[in-house]
Write a structure and sequence with these properties.
With 192 residues, this protein is mainly alpha-helical. The chain has helices at residues 10-17, 21-28, 31-55, 59-72, 75-88, 94-118, 124-145, 149-157, 159-163, 168-189. 79% of the residues lie in helices and 0% in strands. Helix 3 (31-55) packs across helix 5 (75-88) and helix 6 (94-118) packs across helix 7 (124-145). The longest helix has 25 residues, at 31-55. The protein is globular and about 55 Å long.
């Protein structure tokens, strides 16, 4: 997947694992279903790593650092997230969709609880909201951090355009810090 999720076909997958394309479809379904399963695996690994890091830290900055650093170390996960809602959730069965959504809900809830333990000013649902927003933002920022060849060429020719790109880690960190800071204030100002 060195060329990114979007550029790998079912035939490429079949060739990589040494199976005929028809056998891959028979055992694993569509390309999108294979990638959603991979996304779920990556999500579980991400959740475990963040939870382990949160056990060793506390406070808002520690929470954000655990999330951001773990996402930054997982480019495949960020690439998969970036393709998830636009491509990967399109050509799948109902059972695969259900399983993927339940995996996502479970991982987000688990992260929400771990975030609330590490930073008690956030509730579990706010922690889950922060974790979900972090993953979605990472998927968007990853696309900017790994531009297509034509954009790489443009950025090399036009430094002013290249300078307008949002950097992955600093933007993710700043946005999550702002969100995590604001969530308790929003809760407190919400009408009863």
């Amino acid at each position: 997947m060195r060329d990114g999720v979007r550029n790998v076909s079912l035939g490429d997958i079949a060739g990589e694992v040494g199976l005929a394309k028809s056998n891959v479809v028979r055992y694993f379904g569509t390309r999108e279903e294979i990638y959603l399963e991979l996304t779920a695996e990556e999500l579980r690994d991400f959740e475990q790593e963040v939870r382990a890091r949160l056990e060793r830290t506390s406070g808002l900055e520690g929470v954000v650092e655990a999330i951001v650093d773990t996402l930054a170390a997982r480019p495949l996960f960020c690439d998969l997230i970036s393709e998830c809602t636009t491509t990967l959730e399109r050509n799948i069965s109902l059972d695969v969709a259900r399983g993927f959504k339940l995996d996502t809900i479970g991982a987000t809830a688990g992260l929400g609880a771990a975030i609330a333990r590490a930073h008690p000013l956030l509730t579990e649902s706010e922690g889950a909201e922060l974790a979900g927003a972090a993953a979605l933002l990472a998927g968007l920022l990853y696309q900017m951090a790994t531009p297509a060849p034509v954009l790489q060429q443009l950025y090399a020719q036009e430094p002013a355009i290249a300078a307008a790109r949002l950097p992955f880690v600093p933007t993710l960190r700043r946005t999550l810090l702002a969100m995590a800071t604001g969530l308790p204030a929003l809760r407190e100002s919400a009408p009863s």
